[in-house]
Every structure is written in C-alpha cells, then in structure tokens.
Amino acid sequence: MSNKSEYQIEREKKTAINKKAMASLTTEQLEVIKKLKEDLGSALSMLAETNDLYLSDIQKLDDGYHKLCNNFNLDHSYR
Prior knowledge:
There is one protein chain. By secondary structure, the protein is mainly alpha-helical. Helices cover 75% and strands 0% of the residues. Helix 2 (27-50) packs antiparallel against helix 3.
C-alpha cells in the first residue's frame, strides 16, 4: 500500500496529464506560454513592489495576450 496521501496521488496524476499536454504543444505555443509567464511575473512583481505598472509592462501583457489568442484559436475580446 502506498504511503502517499490522496492529495499527493491526485497531484501526481495532474502533473502527468500536464506534462503530456505540454509535450504536445508546438514550439511556438510553448514559447508564447513561457514568454507570457515571464511577462506576467514581471508585471506582478512590479505591482507588488511599487503599486504601479510601467506602460512597457502593459504593452508586453497586451502583446502576450494576443499571441496566446492567436496560438490557441481564442477570441481576442478582453472579456
């Protein structure tokens, strides 16, 4: 019998599913996701440190948003 908790077992299942899904992405899709994660992290860090956001951060987020929409056939509306 396993010493893993129900949570650990469920988390490992989700991790395996996510790993398989990530492996099936195109190179461009993966690059878009990684860049958007980086830009979101940078913007959130700026907000946490200064309670302000640079216009360049907003532009990066907007660009990443549209690249995400383009690569995953999503609607470009903001809502």
